[in-house]
Structures are given as C-alpha cells and as structure tokens.
Amino acid sequence: MRKILSLTIAALAASSAFAGGYRVSLQGQKQLAMGHTGVAVVNSAEVLFFNPAGMAFLEDRFNVSVGGSALFARTKFQNETYNWKASTENVGTPFNAYVSYKVTDWFSAGLAVYTPYGSAVEWDQDWQGSHLVNNIDLQAIYIQPTVSFKISDRLSFGGGPIYVTGSVEFNRNLTRSLTNEQGERSDVTIDAAGVNAWGYTAGFMFNPIDPLMIGFNYRSEITMEARDGDATFNDLPAFAQGAYPNTTFSADLPLPAELTVGLSYKFSDKWLVAFDYNRAYWNVYDALVVDFGADGIPTSVNPRNYKDASTYRLGTQFKPNDKFAFRAGWYFDESPVQDGYFAPETPRNDSMGFTGGLTYQVTNKLGVDVSFLYLHFDETDNSYNHYTEGTQDDVTFGGTYKNVVFSPGIGLTYSF
Amino acid sequence: MKNKFIYLSVLAFVFAGCEPEFENELSDSNYSAGDADFSSYVAIGNSLTAGFMDGTMSRVGQQYSFPNLLAQQFAVVGGGEFTQPPFDADTDNLGGLLFNGNVIQPTRLIIDAGDGGPENIAGTPTVDITNQFATAYNNMGVPGAKSFHLLAEGYGNIAGVPLGQANPYFARTATSPTATVLGDAMSKNPTFFTNWIGNNDVLAFATSGGTGVNQEGNMNPATYGSNDITDPTVFAGVYSQIINTLTSNGAKGVVATIPDVTSIPFFTTVPYNPLSASVIGDGDAAVGQATIQQLNQQLYGPLKQILTALGQGSRINLLNPNGNNPLLITDETLTNFGPQITGALTLGGFDPQLAAFLGNAYGRARQATASDLVLLSTRAAIGAAPQGAPAPFNLFGITYPLQDQHILIPSETSVVATATASFNQSIRQIAASKNLAVADMNQILNQLVSGLRTEDGQIYTADYFSTSTISTVLFSLDGIHPNARGYAVIANEVLKVINDHYNAKLPLVSAGNYPGATVLPSNAN
After folding, report:
1. Most buried in the list A284, B118, B193, B216, measured by CB within 10 Å?
2. Nearest residue on chain A to B113, judged by CA atoms?
3. pLDDT (tens digit per residue) in A32-78
4. Under an 8 A CB cutoff, do A390 and B472 touch?
5. Nearest Cα to A68, choosing from A34, A105, A115?
6. Hey, which residues does B397 pair with through a beta bridge?
7. What are the two backbone dihedrals, phi and then psi, of residue A225, each rounded to the nearest 5 degrees?
C-alpha cells in the first residue's frame, strides 16, 4: 500500500507542508508543490509569504494567488506494556491569499493573509493520555501588508508588519484519577479567542547572474498572549468545586521566529530548481504555563523544552509550454520536540515530505494550481516524562506513535 | 486533461482511506499465557482478595479487587469469565452489612472535607446477609478469614453469625450451611489460582493492640479467640492442605506472602510522641506550655520522684514545653509498682481512694518510645476520657496511660514479626514443593516504606491519606487495606510474577489511573 503510494507520488512529482511542533507549512499551492521552497523563487504573489523582496521582481502589474488545502492528519498510539491503543484523526483547512500591485517600476505593495501555525488534535475523551491532552485547537491568521523595493535589476528588499489574530482551545483531565461522584473524570477547558499580536517579516533577493537567485527572509517571533480567557472546570467532585471555580486564565504561546535562506537556479527557460533552508527558533517554547485567575488554583506548568529545528527543502518546476507547469519537491523536517518531551498534543517526530502539483493556465491571466503533500513519519517510541503528580514531577506517559499526514490543495492565480 | 483530474481525485480518495500502520500492530496476539491456563481463574483469600477497602466491602470498591483487575488482563490471553459475590444491593455504594435489618458492619470510611478526618459515610447499609446466593464465585476472598477458616465446615452457616462462629460474608455465598470456602472454590474447577491467606492469622492480634494470645503450641484452632496468633505448625498444615487441594487437578497459581505490620499505615501513622504544647493546649501553644508546667509539677514530677526511688526513674520523664512529648502508655510487661505508688502518694497526703486509683493506673505506666507502634484507631482515643477517671486524670495518653489495646509494644511486635516470618517461610516452602509462583507481598510492601517506583516513574509510599497525597496514596482510609490504586499496584506485582514464573506475557495495569479515597464536602444524608 505504502509503496504504491510513494510511487504514485513520484510519478506525479508534486509538493509539501507540515512541520514540527504546530507549524503548518502550506502557504501556497505553487511553492508547496516544490517542497515548499520559495525564498529565492519568483513565481507568483505567493512570494509575499516566502520572501516579500521578490514581489518587486514579479513581471505583471497585478498578481493574485488564493488557495487552500485540506490537511488530513492521523496519529495512532499504542503501548505494549499496558495494552493501550488510541488514535486521532483531524482535518485542518489552512488557506492563503496574496495580492500584489506594482506601483512603480521599483516599488510594489501588497497584502498577504495566511495561516502558518495551527494544530487540531482530538483524542477520545478520557483516553490513556487524557491527563496531558484530550483535545487542542489552535488557530492563528497572519495578515501582512507588504512593500518591496527594487534597488537594481539584481537586488530587491521587502517586508512588512504582521498582524496576528488567533484562538486556542485546550482540554485535559485534571489528574490521572480524579472523578466526580458519578465516576466521570474531572477536566478543564481553557478557551481564548481574539488573541492579537504584532510581528514583522523582512528579506532580500539577489540575482548575481541571470540563472541564479539568492534569497533571505526572516519572520519574527510572535508571542500570542492570551489574557482573561475562559477556564472551565468540568465534572469536579463536590469537595473540589469550591477550590476550582470557573475562572479566567492567562498563557503565552510563542509562534517562533523563522529564518530562511535559499537559492534557485534556472537550467533553462523551462526548468528551475530551488533549495531552501529554514531555521525555526523553537527554543522559545520552554513551557506552557497557564495562570488561573482565581486565587488558590495552582499555576499549571508544563515543560516543553523545544529546540531550534531545521528544515531542508528541495523543489523543481518544469514548464513544457504556456499551458502547463509541473512541480515536485521533497523536504526533511526536523522536529523541535526533544526526547522525553513528546506530548500527545503535538505528537510529531522528524518527517519527510513528498510534494507534487501542477498549474493549468486556463487563459493567459488565469491559472489553476493543484498541489499534493504526503508527509512520511517513521513510527517512534517516545514519551513525555515531565508530568507532575503529587510530589513527583517526572511521571511518564508514552508509547509508540505513528503519524500519517497528507494534504491535497487547490488554488487560483490571476495576473495581468 | 480530464483524465489527470480523475487520477488526482482517485489519489485523494486512496489517501483518505490510508491509515497509519505500525510495524507491529498491537493486538491480543502480542500477549501470551505462557505455561499457564487462565480459562478458570479462582482467587482464594481474605479481605485483601475480596476487594475490601475503607473498612468494608462495597459495590464499587469490589470492582477494584486485585483478582478482578488480574482477570481483566487474563482476558487478553484466554481468561474466562470472572465472577464476584453480588453487591448490587449496595445501591448507594455505602458498604457495610445488615443482619436481619441490624447493622453488623458500618458503612465505608470517607474523608469529610469539613471535618478533615476519616469517618463512616452517612447512611444505613443496604446489603443484608440474609439474602443468600448459595453460589460459588471465582473470587472466593472472604473478609476476616484466617487460614484454617478456609477448611472449616459451618464457616458459612448463617445461624453461626450472631454467635461469632461463622463469617457474614461467606454466609451470603456459601453453597450450603456446611460448605467450606475451599470446597466452593474447587467447584469452579480452577485451572489457575491466587492464594493470599494468612494475614489474619497474625494481623488480627496486631490490630487488636496485642490483646489476643499467641497460640503457639496449641494445635486446636477451634479453641482460638479471634485476636489470637495461629500456631505455626497448624498454619503450615492447613496451608499445605489448601495448596494440595488447589493443585490436585493440575492447576497452577500464585501464592502471596504476609506483609509485616511495620509496612502498614495502621501501625505507622500515629507518632509515639504527638504531644506538643500546641496539641496539649488544643491549638494554643501558650496555654499548652502552662498546662505542661502544671503537669510536670503535679503529676509527672511526683511520679518520676517515686519511680526514681524504686530504681525505675526512666519510665517517666518530665514533659518538654518546647518539644514533642511521648504518649503515656501501659506496658503489661513491666513490674507493677501500683502499691508502692499508692503508698507514697498516701504518705504525701493524697486522699487514700485517689492514691489507690492512681497506683492502679500508673503501676505499669511508662512513656512511649519509637519502638512502640500506636494504632491508627488510637488517634481518636488520645485525650479522650477513660471510664471512671476523675479530672485531671481523664486524658488518655496525657494524664492517664493508654491501654494494651491502643499500642503494640515491642514484645508484641516481636511476637508478630516471629509469627509472620514463620508463616512466610511455610508459604515459600510449600509453594516451592509445588513449583508455584510466589508474590512476595511482604517484600513489596516493605519496598513501599522507602518508596516503590512504578513503570511510569511515580514513586508510591506506604503513607496514610493526606490531602497532598490524594493522587498517590495507596492505602484506603482503614489504614490496613489498599484502595483501588493500591490494588492496582498489587495486581501489577502479581502480573510480573506470573510473567516471570510462567513465561507469560500479560499487559500491566497503570496504577496512576485508579482512584483513591472518597472525599466529600460534608457528610450528611
């Protein structure tokens, strides 16, 4: 089954997009199809995300790219010591919309809207790891006004502020054993919407010789500061209801900075190859600390101890004629999660992405983009070893995890 | 072009049906029974096998009996149905027992968050032992049973219950008035058994504070009192008979040893020296210190003076207003200086009647030491008034010595330890002769004293309930029996022994997921 699939993928030669932690690399159908490379590729308005500097190099005066993906993520869990089995299936719908306008020959302006971070994991309520997470739904929409300046035919700069609006909902059981009088497990939901923050992106593109483009882009860290969200305690035993009233909570969730360098090379008018290197500065995610508003509810400290992680991307594009463009890519995505910190809220280990896609130009101005991503994870034996129970702060939960992620996407490009 | 789109949508469909697959997908075939056959598993024993906790059997508590937890794991490798005596009648999960409508066993213990201490949950038990089932069950654990009871005809005869000659729990299920526990167990044709019997042969003496008799040398158990220690030869003989019968059809099994009392919170929770100024002053240290000065002048000082003159000055020391002072206890092994004390006090001008009372009370009195074990049930007695004692000599443990039933003194502890060691030696020898697996509960519970680390990294101890240990305490509120979490730890240890001895591969249970004490905001109907 898997063999047939990867063969099919190879034949299709298409695209990529799911990174460690809660980063979701699906920010444009054309570039996804090329392994989600793009810091040094000037293809379409998608460049507003990959490297705003490239916007000034777009040939057309007006460029629009809109698209979306259906992200299917499935995780299976088993533990032989205790005969535990669990699984989760989740569907996400990351989307993106990019518009650019060439104001003058050397200055372009545009707007980008995209969703680079998100996570939806829903285990069965009260599953074996429910003291760590029952379900989580994390969303962040990035809105980025963008400008780009062409200093010369060989060099451009670009960037812009990023406004992020997001929400988080998270539920877990309070302990491994607390129940109400009816035997139902006690749990807590924290829910915050309309969490806003600012950041920025900046980059440059350099074209030393005609076939070669070099790109650099930096997107800043943005900390989502949830304040006065709702914390709701459910199924508490009567004696604990006084001590755990429904209240507010505060928590900070970092969306880490990401640095990308890369290059693309045109072997001919029809054939382009791109390479990107991403470094995501995940070490800012030290712990998930939830402070509750009501006095007496202890602050919940959940060590995460993420490490900075790299992604290596390779992509290619082949345009046999004016009607079609075919794309394929591959990437290796390093997980920011360290051994012993493998929590089932983001059960991701290192992965390899295989991508493919194509564009069909309906007219000179309008193109339809199709992309596909298959993300391969080796099964992994790992655990979260930092759960606090009583006086122990190193209680473990783990087993064998296996992920499968795939995502078909579709987009439209319009330019004149 | 059209074909390409069809190709893509087919591909999407294929992926949608694509599940993550493990190289070794976990299924029942990952586990094995090894050399054992779990198709008919029967558990023999006492309260620890029955699922007794918080001072009683209860409908919910019974679900967590260690044999029931084992049976759920055995089911993965061909284990058959596992039945337990019905407790459906315990509708509100209050526990306790009725006999013809009269309460003969109180309701289960809970923590009243308002009061703090453990107490019986409000309400009246609803399980009446006159509703008899006359059925053998896979769980043949009978609370209160000693080794020889398993062979005793009439132990389940309800007519004997009010006379103390029969067991109310066994009376509910015995297949006939003359049935034996072992006979009913054998009617289930066990292919596998657990046998954890013998605790009460020594523990009943210990929990009574050593008020029973060590029956070493008395070979007739029919003459034993309920708090007596069984003769070791009687124990070994009975134990052999039980094992011979259980293995007569080739069944395999696990036997368990008897834990030392020093690893059970019933004997280790109350300190020998709880008397600080604050305790004596009922929360007010200044008042307590004044009281201590007064006690030293009027009681401890004069007593010490008299005892010193008799060469026994070390029996009692003055109370330290800034320290934790020991309880005043009676040690029946001491020479009785009652007449001398009475005489000295009379000479000192005491009313002769009061002097006689005090001589009687303090003749064998001494202060407790770290070698004395104060029973959990004694906690409520400290400071309470002994019957007929005039003020200020009416405070147990402070101005009036605690009695034999309150304390396990070193001579008693030593008798208990000797008997336990002897019983455990017999258990191991008899098990070895039949090549049975041994779950060394004595060793496992001793491990709890310093901390037993389970597979998930949690460290469990033998401590009694406190609010900070709500997620980790293993013992139920009676201080003797495990709670659900504790039975899960026991089940795990038994599973490991089975895996090891019978080359089986059984999944473990995760103790952390099992509940502890019931805590209620208030205790009212």
Report:
1. B193
2. A239
3. 999 999 999 999 999 999 999 999 999 999 999 999 999 999 999 99
4. yes
5. A115
6. none
7. -100, 100
